[in-house]
Design goal:
The chain is α+β, with helices and mostly antiparallel strands. Helix content is 40%, strand content 18%. A hairpin with a 2-residue loop joins strand 15 and strand 16. Helix 12 crosses helix 13. The longest helix is centred in the middle third of the chain and has 24 residues. 41% of the residues are buried. Bound molecules: glycine and manganese (II) ion (MN) (2 copies).
């Protein structure tokens, strides 16, 4: 029976059914932050890929965060103040269209199932918005996110202004609603953390599967296929971002996504891949030898990156600021680069001159959540923001050694990144992605088990 429950929670809308009141609470929180005024938050449009074929639909993350509603052509309207209201505009039921494209909740269904105070057909949006905006002092809106929406909303506001002779006032202040929503999304609640644990766990399985599958002579895309199989098999239909499967020198191209080269004996394989589970991203990088055994040079570089990551994770705790993990990683990398004869001088000298940037040119992480590069400011004013419980970030140092005159030849074309997903907790941190093999001995053991 326990196994059966696990299956239900993994493969059904169980999380959702249990928790739609949670979305209502998130809307309430936002209304409290707004204090007064009207917020208008559209979901994402459907996107054509080519001809009349669409990309798989993906809702807007903030719209979904506040609604749990995954259909396209929907807009959330919140009224804050004495009489708070939560209103959705969505597609009408249409039996003909539903035969072709599937179920639509329709306004009545949306109101009942998703806990809105009111719901209207999306076709009534303009007319109703003129009404709803009337006499609201402030308009909260994601200004600048979409030019077509900007034009439409400003035109509707102008239509309200035109009614001024009848005593109606239009909002005379427009504020970016993302400022409030992003702060809210930055701190993950228990429901979000449970989904992120699940996303991370599926992705760990995928990395393990890739390690077990990898053989000399395969194409990178064949390893990618194993990742995607594992994601989809566990109900994560989409990758959170395009998978990077980069053998040998390809790992030194940071955003390599061609994934069409063959894997060579003696090369490393860098995989940066994570699934999206019920909207939530995971983001994992592992680097391992195609033939299952690190060479001495590969191992030397790998241990430096691994030590840098451990140092960074170690300081990712309450009391530290956003940049502390990056600074911790940089110190270890700088010392390692000196030891490897990639850089010269002292750690402080290397950090000051920036000579490490030839081999480490990106930052050590980012917020993670509904978006892989999730929302939330990294600075408050001029200062890095303090880490607090509920924040989720990646920790992903690397080292990318392109052939160059000033580089020992034995290290040419080694590209390594190690990336984990970390939750800041009250007592330290929780690494969501521990199950993906990471130490040299773990990786070699996993690959040995499957080599025969
Ligand atoms: N996979 C995207 C990143 O690591 O930031
Ligand atoms: Mn990342
Ligand atoms: Mn990544």
């Amino acid at each position: 029976a326990a196994g059966c429950n696990a299956l239900i929670s993994e493969h059904s809308n169980y999380y959702f059914a249990m928790t739609h009141t949670l979305y209502a609470e998130r809307r309430k929180h936002l209304q409290t932050e707004m204090q007064q005024g009207i917020a208008i938050i559209p979901t994402a449009p459907e996107m054509l890929r080519n001809g009349d074929a669409h990309y798989a639909y993906r809702f807007d993350s903030s719209f979904y965060y506040l609604t749990g509603f995954a259909e396209p052509e929907a807009v959330l309207v919140l009224i804050a103040g004495d009489k708070p209201q939560s209103i959705v505009f969505c597609r009408e039921k249409n039996l003909e269209r539903e035969i072709w494209d599937g179920h639509r909740a329709g306004p009545d269904g949306a109101r009942e199932q998703f806990g809105f105070d009111a719901a209207f057909p999306i076709a009534q949006l303009d007319e109703k918005l003129v009404e709803l905006m009337s006499n609201q002092p402030t308009l909260f809106y994601p200004l600048g996110a979409d030019a077509a929406w900007d034009a439409r909303i400003l035109k509707l506001r102008a239509a309200v202004q035109e009614k001024s002779r009848s005593g109606v006032r239009a909002p005379d202040e427009i504020r970016d609603v993302r400022k409030l929503i992003n702060e809210q999304r930055l701190l993950k609640d228990e429901h979000e953390l449970s989904l992120m644990r699940r996303a991370a766990s599926i992705s760990c399985g995928a990395h393990q599967r890739a390690m077990q599958f990898t053989r000399t002579g395969q194409f990178e895309y064949q390893v990618e296929a194993e990742l995607l199989h594992e994601f989809c098999h566990h109900g994560a239909r989409d990758a959170a971002y395009t998978s990077i499967v980069a053998g040998g020198a390809n790992a030194c191209t940071l955003h390599y996504v061609e994934n069409n080269a063959t894997l060579h004996d003696g090369d490393l394989l860098l995989i940066d891949a994570g699934c999206e589970f019920q909207g939530y991203a995971s983001d994992i990088t592992r680097t391992y030898p195609v033939n299952g055994k690190f060479s001495a040079a590969q191992r030397d570089v790998y241990e430096v990156v691994l030590a840098a990551q451990a140092a960074a994770i170690d300081v990712a705790k309450i009391g530290a600021h956003w940049n502390a993990p990056h600074e911790a990683a940089l110190r270890v990398l700088a010392q390692g680069f000196i030891d490897l004869k990639l850089c010269h001088g002292t750690v402080d000298g290397v950090l000051e001159s920036g000579s490490y940037k030839q081999f480490y040119m990106h930052r050590t992480g980012h917020w993670l959540g509904l978006d892989v590069h999730d929302v939330g400011d990294y600075k408050i004013g001029d200062d890095w923001r303090a880490l607090t419980a509920g924040m989720v970030l990646t920790v992903e140092p690397g080292c990318y050694i392109r052939p160059a005159d000033n580089v020992p030849k034995a290290l040419w074309n080694i590209g390594i990144r190690i990336e984990d997903d970390v939750v800041i907790t009250a007592t330290g941190n929780e690494i969501l992605t521990l199950a993906a093999p990471k130490t040299v001995s773990e990786i070699e053991a996993v690959m040995r088990r499957t080599a025969s």
